[in-house]
Amino acid sequence: MITRPESITVKVHGREFNVLTTNEREPLYISTLAQYVDEAMTQVAESTQIVDTSQLAVMAALDITDELFRLRDRKEEHGSRTSKVITQLIDRLDQVINQKELKVK
């Protein structure tokens, strides 16, 4: 349900940001996203010598994007394997049906 825009404040790497939402479930979702980004920036900060917030944000964005692309690749692989198995099952069912039809005739 779309409602009146609501402003929520999220904190990422020590800075507060106001985000407008129009869905009653969005504030929690936006907060979860902000927490994820905050954790990614903290990981980058702890594993590098980078202190500049903009650089940390870009490196965190690259890490998150890498994660997204890897998940997409796995999803495509899984979908491809699933399609192959389904095709094999359909072929096998066709064989069984054809054999039964030959026996009936």
Structure notes:
With 105 residues, this protein is of the alpha+beta class. It has a domain of 73 residues. The protein is built from 2 helices and 2 strands. A two-stranded antiparallel sheet has the order 1-2. The protein is elongated, with a radius of gyration of 25 Å. The chain starts with a strand and ends with a helix.
Category from helices, strands and their pairing: alpha+beta
Q: What would the average pLDDT be, to the nearest integer?
A: 89
Q: What is the ordering of alpha helices and beta strands?
A: EEHH
* Largest sheet features: 2 strands, antiparallel
Q: In DSSP terms, counting alpha (H) and pi (I) runs of 4 or more, how many helices?
A: 2
How much helix, percentage-wise, in residues?
over 70%
Strand order of the largest sheet: 1-2
Question: Could you tell me the radius of gyration in angstroms?
Answer: 25 Å
Strand content: 15-25%
- Distance, first to last CA: 60 Å
Using DSSP, what is the number of strands? 2
Q: Detail the poorly predicted runs.
A: none
What best-fitting shape do the alpha-carbon axes yield? elongated
Oligomeric state of the chains in view? single chain
Question: Brief overview, please?
Answer:
This protein is of the alpha+beta class.
